[in-house]
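The material for today's practical consists of a large collection of protein records. An example says more than a description, so a record of this kind follows:
***
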Amino acid sequence: MQSFPKPLTSEEERCYLERYRNGDEDAKNILIEKNLRLVAHIVKKYNNSGRDMDELIAIGIVGLVKAVNTFDADKGNRIVTYAARCIENELLMMLRSERKLTREVSLYDPIGTDKEGNEISLLDIVENPEMDIADRIALKGSIHQLYDNLDRLLSSREKEIICRRYGLGGQPAATQKEIAEKLGISRSYV
């Protein structure tokens, strides 16, 4: 069974942080080593993500190193509190980027067959400008219901974020990063 070093006490943590601020790289390494238990603890939550545990731990350690490099003790928190958030963010960023890749679809991928048994691709459907009148009416009704629900269920700020993100209301779709910069909020809030 693998065991981790005991975590630092508050006093030890302050001492090593001070040494690291003064250029002691060994102090930085000790801060990282003594917080490896935290990485393992947080990674357990992502055990069902389908990723190899060692890979998740490696990504968590990247978050821990970033935390140690950017931690500001003057803000009154312990490094564990800050590092937990950094580790979690690193894991979430990796999982989000993977999800983005799995959602990519080719217009040429087969999606089914037509009445004659011919294979149909997404491009075949997109290229066909003719839409059945019943489908057009149903689509208009769905769009109207969507906008009603946006007005009824969301605050004006939430509505603005959703509309910008998905390109509703005649505006182009924007990334989380673009919206965050435009509205002065974090990507995770978007």
Summary: The chain has two domains: 10-102, 118-183. Strands lie at 110-113, 119-121.
